[in-house]
Amino acid sequence: MTLDPDPGFRALIRPHTGQVTCIGPPDGHGFSTDLLAVVECENGPFFVKAMKNRPGGRRDQMVREKVINPFVRSVAPALLWSVEDEEWIVLGFEVVKARETDFTPASADLPVVVDLLNRIHDMELPGVVRDWTETRWDWFADRGAPALFRGDTLLHADINPSNLLIGQRSWVVDWSWPTRGAAFIDPAMLVVQLIAADHTPESAESWASTCAAWVNADPKAIDAFAVAYARMNRHRALRRPGERWLAAMAEATEAWATHRGVHL
Predict the structure, then answer these.
(1) Cα(208)–Cα(103) distance, integer angstroms
(2) What are phi and psi of 178, to 5 degrees?
(3) Would you put residue 144 in left (φ > 0), alpha (ψ -120 to 50) or beta?
(4) Is residue 247 located within the same domain as residue 139?
(5) What are the pLDDT digits (tens) for 81-109?
(6) Residue 146 contacts by C-beta under 8 Å, 6 or more apart in sequence?
(7) 175 lies in some domain
(8) Is the residue at 2 inside a domain?
């Protein structure tokens, strides 16, 4: 299948791509991107991620991904160019051949997943992230709990199978909203994803326990996060009842909170 963005899009990227022969869909997918494509071209190929250039959160995500890329290339594909006009903001990455990870209980990918989280945890916090304080769960947390989510660790904060890839090497992609926060948050997000992939809460936490950030965390902070995350996911599922994946995430988070003995 060939994608056919408006002619202005092709003209915008041409200084970087040269003559474009095909704009086709990648192997994976994106939930909140206007265009994901592999651009076959004179100077490429390139993996291209593009958003309509409108003020607000989605534009901010593209800007963050552009800014953070030089600091996370030990795990992330390199951003090779970027361009924008009044209509589009576009990022052009190197193309990597990789597949989504498998989070199910019998998967041989799980040690690789844990290794990727540990590699993120071990990164030095880039200066550009200093003002990107993690606040997404604050509104759903009990009084005083948001302070437990603060920290000085670089967080990817969107841990899921489509963002952790395995090929000749392993990758972490979609750095749309990196933040500075408590180190346990990425492993905690892994726990919920593993439960959604049919792990028991005990099994999910046993994998998280191989992450240094989890072992060193205050259990009360994890409990507070489980409460806030369960409330967030239930709120999202109720607002968008037609999206089954949101209901599945709400169910997984609530199962985890129940396992930890916390009240929502």
Answers:
(1) 13
(2) -65, 145
(3) left
(4) yes
(5) 999 999 999 999 999 999 999 999 999 99
(6) 135, 137, 138
(7) yes
(8) no
